[in-house]
Predict the structure.
Amino acid sequence: MRMLRSVAAVVLLVLAACGDDGVSPFQMQQVARAQATWEAQQLTYYTVEARLACFCPSELGQWHELTVANDSIIAARRVEPGEGAPAAPPQWFATVDEVFQRVRAWNGSMRGNRFEAEFDAVTGLPLQVNLITSPDIADGGAVYYYRALKPGLVSLGVSP
């Protein structure tokens, strides 16, 4: 009987460590560390390449270079020219800060939501953020991809 109680206590501790809906405190700490690293750069102007995989227009699946100023996307252009989908409008994408906000809100937005994320260790840039819905929702998630960060000249209070 004592062994059964010990096993039950361990199972409860493991479940409690997962947090609500399967997102662990460790995952949220990972997000907080990456976001702090990102914010420490004090980037007010940068370009980054991004694409989005979701139940959305196919243009978003193409790599685009986003120009961001004061946390607003001011331009988007396709990186890989060629035939196919035209460039997507800038408002269809998310800035890096907006993706951090979405990750933090995702867990509490609906029961069963979870996420997987990979961040650049030096810049905190989210390289891949997979927002996963509960299994009973077919088209609610999204995967954000970022690469090729180029900080502008207006970071850390330094001007040209």
Observations:
- The longest strand covers residues 45-54.
- The longest helix spans residues 2-17.
- Residues 1-20, 154-160 have pLDDT under 50 and may be disordered.
- The chain is about 30% helix and 30% strand.
